[in-house]
Amino acid sequence: MSSQPSAGQPTKPQPQGAGQKAQQGPQAAQQQQPAAQQAAKPQAAPAAKPPAPQAAQPPKPALPELPPPPNVDVGTLALVELVEAVVKLKRSGILGMLSYLADKAEESFLAAATDPALMRLLALLASVSYGVSKVSADDIANAQNALQDLARCSITALGRVDVTEERRYGALGMGYRLRDPDVGASLWILIQIAKGLGRCVRERSKGR
What we know:
208 residues; mainly alpha; extended; disordered N terminus
């Protein structure tokens, strides 16, 4: 028995999509193979772009060559410095004073040797210098600092005092002034100096 339809039986229409798919199947497979092969091949790196040409820089001007330093003798330099020092002494007046002392040196020494007041002053200064040499270095440093402060404060206070205005204080006025903290601090300094002076004199008297 044949499967061909008879003349009396109507033929079933086949769907158009199925036939087209069957025809397009081998062609699509052939087209996909080259595409897969192209994807599998390693892609070549893009060619590097050539560097952009840089603008030409103007040439730098050549520096002028300096002449070599002159050969100067050391004695000449020393002589120039000596002349400059003498000029400075002359302008300050020290050179004139030194020349005057040099001219009047003999007369000055004779006058100093024959002046009794000056000789006494020199003797007192020598005694003070001898006494200071017997004091320890720490006491000298403390006395120097205290003397600087006392001198500055004393000169400042003296400059603020009006000696032309006369004021008198009685016992009550003195008692009221003693309550002033500044007056109390000044008296405390004087009392401390008097106390230290008396103790030093007493110790020296016992040691003799």
